[in-house]
């Protein structure tokens, strides 16, 4: 492998090259990244126009002690359903309530992870026909272990109208499979609505589950595409993600049923929270909005103006003056400063749809007129032929077999260097090569990313998909990060992305691979500066996709700096004994990069590439 490190042959890589794509799929947000512990906190999961579905709330008590139903008496206009609990036991002449009382419990998203010593804030809205004494408790899944409890006691006049109550519960034990209970031993009728339980410590205090965000932060993402994917489109337009229903006080959000991935979200993780997370991660948000097209229905271009206005309003919400109509709502939510929204995607995977082009042009011209600096992303692939409409970027999605993705490392070699740049916003190996996240899949992805790095004059951004899966609701395999209520691990695909964290904004060098095994090898080289320590690194990455070990000679030419063989030069290898090896909760690091000192670091090095491996040689330069 010849690496020419001379500046003349090098090319700057876009600062935005590698980022992340978050979609509400697999309970990635609700029951995942968003730290809310209660599932279906407003009892709305059936939607506003169908009989309520209180699932997964369950009843504690029997027909003689309790009648639980729902009605539309909530004080919140956009989510009218409330839980009605008629307690039959507990007064003279009636049955005695069971010890512990009767009521309801919520198991969260396959169990709440309650940790000893941590405090949880429970907020709920309550109304009653009389005085109340309600126990609010964090319990084990069997309802026998009490991790924390507090009582809400109020006179009849205090709760004759809807009243907000808050309690702090400090856990005396750890249980990853806990539940929240609301119980009483007092006869009467009580209504509950908008019951929330959140840990007090969340990422930067903004409501995100820290361990999961830290895994994202470790990827050093340069952009954050959200909130979908198909989630943005919906099977039907009525179930698409519409940002206006996801902002403002959380209690007032209607929530919605995502009919592509088939689950309800309370939309606590809404448009504002996505923008906040992008800011917290130091990335640029890329907002994907619905362009009047879903999987099964579409708005005619002649009627699409309300959707266009919704997008304009969304941009104003993100970055408008705090006194503007929508900017003021953002300011009231706690962020008077604008968010740094520079990119929007007009729809998702809608290019072939009848009304896409017509609708797109309406969005493009309206946004361009009002916000000329906003960069817009078209759904139509411009990698092999020119787009027939204006765009700053075109979206490119690829889900395929490992062999195919390996060869697609050359996908952009012959793409026209003129015209809009590519945004590879979704890529992954899927199907039997991938399982739930195999080494094989990850190696092909590594090769594909090397190809992108080398073609970063035409590819401006790239992100893997999907990012997250809650192991209890696998709607899509594989995914980068697997979690449940209390644990998480990266798949090999996640670890491959970690090899590219220094690439955005670095310089890609000219490399020539002269090897008789070059059909199974692909390599790239970059130089990047570690400004914190004032050091410059040469990073050479090689995928060996073949089943034989390769002895490779690496020669570096044209270096301004001398290579040095200090402890700072390292080698990191991702491989495993079996090509289909995966990580799991039992073996979360079975396939994980291993870093060692590179003892023969120099301008000429003989290195060994294990079969089926991805290696990064990181040479510290003087
Ligand atoms: O990443 C999963 C899905 O794949 C996305 O929702 C969609 O854009 C693509 O089809």
UniProtKB/TrEMBL annotation:
Cell compartment(s), UniProt: Secreted, Extracellular space, Extracellular matrix
UniProt cross-references to SUPFAM superfamilies, sorted A to Z: (Trans)glycosidases
Class of this enzyme: hydrolase
Main location: secreted
Statement: the UniProt record of this protein carries the keyword Mitochondrion: no
GO biological process: L-arabinose metabolic process; xylan catabolic process
Reactions performed catalytically: Hydrolysis of terminal non-reducing alpha-L-arabinofuranoside residues in alpha-L-arabinosides
Sorted UniProt keywords: Extracellular matrix, Glycoprotein, Hydrolase, Secreted, Signal
EC number(s) given by UniProt: 3.2.1.55
Coiled coil: none
SMART domains in UniProt: Alpha-L-AF_C
Domain Alpha-L-arabinofuranosidase C-terminal: 425-613
Database matches in InterPro entries: Alpha-L-AF_C, ASD1_cat, GH, Glyco_hydro_b, Glycosyl_Hydrolase_51
Protein's UniProt keywords contain Cytoplasm: no
UniProt GO MF annotations: alpha-L-arabinofuranosidase activity
Protein family: Belongs to the glycosyl hydrolase 51 family.
Name of the featured protein: non-reducing end alpha-L-arabinofuranosidase
